[in-house]
Design a protein that fits this description.
With 590 residues, this protein is of the alpha+beta class. It folds into 3 domains: 196 residues, MFS general substrate transporter like domains (Growth Hormone, Chain: A), CATH 1.20.1250.20; 212 residues, MFS general substrate transporter like domains (Growth Hormone, Chain: A); 149 residues, no CATH class. 59% of the residues lie in helices and 11% in strands. Strands 2, 3, 4, 5, 10, 11 and 12 form a 7-stranded antiparallel β-sheet that branches. It has a 4-stranded antiparallel β-sheet with strand order 6-7-8-9, with no helix packed on it. A two-stranded antiparallel ribbon has the order 1-13. It is elongated, with a radius of gyration of 27 Å. The chain starts with 5 loop residues before the first helix and ends with a helix.
Length: 590
């Protein structure tokens, strides 16, 4: 058999590299960006993340009914990537959740078909599929890891990455490059041209015949339900790591892909020794271990455990999900084997991921808050501290002080207008506000910090300022703003480098917010108190507090239950029983 020409191999490898990099560069830090930069609720984050599984569910219809029948693969790939680039570029400018969901859904409807199309292009041009395809496909994993390295370099240059729109913008650039490059790929005619194709074939529904086998039904149901705990990490881990103050999130999470390469090499040996059932069970054990790492890491503030949860990703994915694909390949009759593989993908990363994102969005929303209630008997002092600024070398400027608590919409408009100097954005935010924005109402003072002396707050108050810190390797402590003193003081300051808004014993601790150093760089900090609740804003976005311990604890319990159900309910039959079942399934399929 002749070997694949080197120029073809190189082009196909570059295709895989770019195609996986498009998705990895922005999907990994997505919830960190949505939560920190845009202040979306966890429920909104879950819905926006569901653009991917919805695209996964609908992609086969386009691929099977249109792309595979009428157009050359490389041309379809080029057009989809170019359209997707424009949509990602537009998405990077959107700050409204419903519009962002719509645009990302359209982008995913363009992107998700490309996984099948790139595989089809590569396979159609392989001389020896078993030898050539894995060597080409591995460049997809390399592309995923490469964007993590790129994000680290970007961060080391002193630039913000994970909580910004830069990943989406970078994804748009890669998508445009992949779109242009696609037209230089080998010509790949539509594989199903002239063939009759039904919707049942496209959605792999013929594989439903295998559900008559009890073990196969258990396998499908558990695979669906496993995506509930799996998606807690897959979708929301970047938000969690951001909340823990982890830097270079995209790079950190790419270690899961590094581990995946190693664990993938182990699969044949482990399955040969343990069998399918116990090999897949090992993947579920790793899933449980992941959430035990996250739970106890949160409980005892042990950040090394967070990285343990990342490293086991390859063990989970390789042994349970890839092991499941191997199980299907063994159990499904030859004529419906491809349909069965397509069916499990729709069940897991389509329906299962959609369900998991929704449930975890609800769970995280339940265990989070945007404010901290004060004690019922607490009364705000009326005297502003005479000497507020006690953080040596800190700069507090552009101070505004209100005798009322501004709303979240008003803070966002203020930030857009006064900090970003973006009147167009401020106008859009003002129009979308749920109540009239009246930034002139209740304004007591605007100017330098020293001018606050002698001012008296009302029943509520808002303090707004631009704050920057001096260059220092020490964790600074002190006060930026204070009303009253002693135990009843209401103040905004630092505790060992941690941003703190406190009233008596109640406080919001934005321990993960980094205040820039140097006069040329500063952070917009706003604290509001309405007599009942403290709220803290940074960069125009409200700071949401998360209680991760019960989130990870419940996810670990669900993982343990699924492990037990799989071990009890799934039976890996002997060869004679397999042959009997295969004959029955073939008769059903025919």
């Amino acid at each position: 058999m002749t070997s694949m020409p080197m120029n073809v191999r190189v082009r196909l490898s570059v295709m895989m590299f770019l195609q996986f990099a498009i998705h990895a560069v922005w999907i990994v830090p997505l919830t960190a960006y949505l939560g920190r930069a845009l202040s979306f609720t966890p429920l909104q984050m879950g819905w926006i993340a569901n653009a991917a599984p919805l695209g996964c569910l609908l992609a086969p219809i386009f691929v099977g009914m249109v792309a595979d029948r009428f157009f050359a693969g490389q041309k379809v790939l080029g057009v989809l990537n170019l359209v997707g680039a424009g949509l990602l570029l537009y998405a990077s400018t959107i700050s409204e959740p419903r519009m962002l969901f719509i645009v990302l859904l359209l982008q995913q409807l363009c992107y998700m078909p490309t996984w099948a199309i790139t595989s089809a292009i590569a396979l159609a041009n392989c001389k020896d599929t078993e030898q050539d395809f894995p060597k080409i496909r591995v460049f997809g994993s390399i592309g995923w890891v490469a964007v993590g390295v790129f994000s680290l370099v970007f961060t080391l240059m002193g630039k913000q990455w994970d909580s910004t729109s830069m990943p989406m913008l970078t994804g748009a650039i890669i998508s445009a490059a992949a779109g242009i490059f696609a037209f230089a790929l080998p010509h790949t005619p539509p594989p199903a041209a002239g063939k009759k194709t039904t919707l049942s074939d496209v959605l792999s529904l013929r594989a439903l015949a295998l559900m008559k086998r009890p073990s196969f039904a258990v396998f499908i149901i558990i695979s669906l339900l496993v995506l509930i705990p799996f998606s807690a990490y897959w979708t929301f881990c970047s938000l969690f790591l951001s909340d823990q103050g982890i830097q270079a999130i995209t790079f950190s999470m790419s270690f899961g892909q590094f581990g995946e390469i190693f664990f993938m090499l182990m699969i044949p040996f482990v399955l040969a020794r343990l069998g399918i059932k116990w090999g897949m069970s090992l993947g579920l054990v790793a899933l449980l271990v992941r959430y035990l790492f996250l739970y106890f890491g949160s409980l005892y503030d042990q950040s090394w455990m967070y990285f343990g949860s990342i490293i086991v990703h390859g063990l989970i994915y390789g042994f349970f999900f890839v092991g499941g694909q191997i199980y299907i390949d063994k159990k499904a009759p030859r004529e419906i084997r491809a349909a069965a593989q397509g069916f499990i993908f729709l069940v897991t990363f389509g329906a299962g991921l959609f369900l998991g994102n929704y449930i975890n969005g609800q769970l995280i929303q339940h265990y989070s808050s945007v404010g901290e209630p004060v004690a019922q008997a607490y009364e705000m002092p009326s005297a502003l501290a005479a000497d507020m600024l006690t953080v040596e070398g800190a700069d507090v400027s552009d101070v505004k002080f209100y005798g009322r608590a501004l709303t979240a919409d008003e803070v966002a408009v203020m930030n857009a207008r006064d900090v970003q100097k973006d009147e167009l954005k401020a106008g859009r935010l003002e129009e979308a506000a749920s109540a009239p924005v009246r930034l002139e109402d209740g304004l007591i003072y605007a100017g330098e910090l020293a001018g606050l002396a002698g001012k008296t707050p009302g029943q509520g108050m808002t303090f707004s300022a631009m704050i920057s810190l001096p260059e220092s390797e020490d964790r600074l402590s002190g006060t930026f703003f204070a009303v009253g003193g002693e135990n009843d003081a209401l103040r905004i300051g630092l505790e060992q480098g941690v941003l703190l808004f406190q009233a008596g014993d109640s406080s919001i601790v934005a321990r993960r917010v980094s205040i820039p150093s140097g006069a040329d760089s500063s952070l917009h900090v706003v604290g509001t108190f309405d007599g009942r609740e403290l709220k803290l804003y940074t960069g125009g976005s409200i700071y949401r507090q998360y209680n991760w311990k019960p989130i990870w604890g419940l996810t670990a319990i669900i993982s343990a239950i699924l492990l037990v159900l799989f071990v009890v309910g799934f039976q890996d039959k002997g060869k004679r029983e397999e042959e009997s079942d295969e004959a029955s399934a073939e008769a059903t399929a025919s």
